[in-house]
Design a protein that fits this description.
By secondary structure, this protein is of the alpha/beta class. It contains 15 helices and 17 strands. The strands form three sheets. Strands 4-3-2-5-1-6-7-8 form an eight-stranded mixed beta sheet, with helices on both faces. The chain has a six-stranded mixed beta sheet with strand order 12-13-17-14-15-16, with helices on both faces. The longest helix has 21 residues. It is globular and about 55 Å long.
Length: about 450
């Protein structure tokens, strides 16, 4: 038995040593021991390469604006581990994490003694979430974000009300496949028999895979650009505005506070799912709640402006598609500024293309390493860059503390890359910016 939160957290994180073990058999074993909590939850399942967290946030915010209590399971966290299991956007308490760890730990130990082997960190956290939402919360609905892929992801024991696939990109190719079509097949694995699937996938080959899988499962398909359509998009200083046409009608001048074309695609998925839940009588969701929810939705670490003077932005662009979107937004919004990029990545990512795109937009680019088992070194990243103004730094904390005061009205700093890095760097950046304000 763990007696403190830190003991429980150390045990959970210690399971990172087991790596990634795709498959559902260990989850099914634990769920059976826990009397199948996954069957006692009303849920929406969200997969895709990028945009899962933002889509979860838009849908959660709409449901909250409708008066419902909404659970979310997301990964990774940005500032605090407990974020991964939240109610109405508020992370569960340290005491609840301790209680959940003490429920799952004996099962993990028993499982380790079988031929199946012990559960991974993600499997443990997923089991904790299922148990919590079924037995310890009053959530009306839970939004489960896929961890990796879909078909063999730990969350895929769900029988959801509907599923979402945000988009398909070439990420985790060492596990999911090297083509959009192969990755789409893994993502499509979350589609359940006769349960609708909503998707913003634009790659034609990937979309065809999803459509064929949905047909096999007799699942209705709702596609961006077909069953629901974005028109009249305009970028605002802080956010976006767009019109959405769906089978339920036209919603004009919808506003969101998050920035980027990709965010209105994520928002459109959330709106379409909420309209489906309302139309089926599963939840009562009005147009007013949709508008309020979209405007209030906030997801940390996604093109997030931490400070306007000096201008400092953090963005968890951790793959080629994410970097492409970031570069497009920077070029569109900040063409008149010199841009200092600070970048960190995991070694198992294909970061050569990412760095090539950052080189094009960055006046100065600094590569850093951070304390994580799979993190690439600063030198490894530096060697991939063709920038004439590049630097490798191991002590990123000291570097940021010294560099932030040098940002002037014509420049900006963008800290980007691995979400695991963003979770470390964001609180420290806030500390640096606070101290800078005090000194001024």
């Amino acid at each position: 038995m763990f007696t403190t939160y830190q003991e429980a957290l150390n045990w959970i994180h210690g399971r990172l040593r087991l790596g990634i073990k795709p498959g559902l058999i260990r989850m099914e074993w634990m769920m059976d021991k826990l009397d199948h909590p996954e069957t006692k939850i009303k849920a929406v399942h969200i997969g895709g390469t990028n945009g899962k967290g933002s889509t979860v946030t838009f849908l959660r915010s709409i449901l909250q604006a409708s008066g419902y209590t909404v659970g979310t399971f997301t990964s990774p966290y940005i500032e605090h581990f407990n974020e991964r299991i939240s109610i109405n956007g508020k992370p569960i308490s340290d005491h609840e994490i301790l209680e959940l760890a003490n429920v799952i730990a004996p099962l993990a130990k028993e499982l380790e003694e079988t031929e199946l082997g012990g559960p991974t960190e993600f499997e443990v956290i997923t089991a904790m979430a299922f148990y919590y939402f079924a037995n310890r919360s009053n959530a009306d609905i839970v939004l489960f974000e896929v961890g990796l892929g879909g078909r063999f992801d730990s969350t895929n024991i769900l029988k959801p009300l509907s599923s979402i696939i945000t988009n398909i990109g070439l990420d985790h190719t060492n596990i999911l496949g090297s083509t959009h079509e192969e990755i789409a097949f893994e993502k499509a694995g979350i589609i359940k028999q006769q349960m609708p699937i909503f998707t913003a996938v634009s790659h034609l080959g990937a979309l065809k895979v999803i459509e064929e899988y949905a047909e096999k499962m007799q699942a209705p398909v709702y596609r961006l650009g077909h069953e629901f359509l974005i028109t009249e998009h305009e970028s605002l200083e802080k956010g976006e505005i767009f019109t959405l046409k769906t089978e339920e009608g036209i919603l004009e001048k919808l506003k969101i506070s998050m920035m980027g074309r990709h965010q209105i695609e994520n928002a459109s998925l959330a709106v379409s799912v909420s309209q489906y839940l309302n139309q089926k009588g599963l939840f009562n969701i009005t147009e007013r709640a949709i508008r309020k929810g979209l405007l209030q939705a906030y997801w940390p670490g996604r093109f997030e402006i931490l400070s306007e003077s000096p201008l400092v932005i953090v963005d968890g662009a951790h793959n080629d598609e994410g970097i492409s979107v970031l570069v497009q937004e920077l070029a569109k919004r900040y063409a008149n500024r010199t841009i200092h990029i600070v970048f960190a990545a995991l070694r198992d990512k294909k970061f050569d293309k990412m760095i090539a795109k950052l080189d094009q937009i960055a006046t100065q680019i600094t590569f850093v390493s951070f304390d994580y088992p799979r993190a690439a070194t600063a030198v490894e990243l530096l060697e991939m860059s063709n920038s004439s103004n590049k630097l490798a730094v191991d002590d990123w904390k000291t570097y940021l503390l010294e560099e932030i005061p040098n940002i002037n009205d014509d420049s900006m700093m963008v800290v980007t890359g691995s979400l695991y890095f963003i979770s470390e760097v964001k609180p420290y950046l806030k500390f640096c910016l606070k101290n800078l304000t005090i000194s001024l």
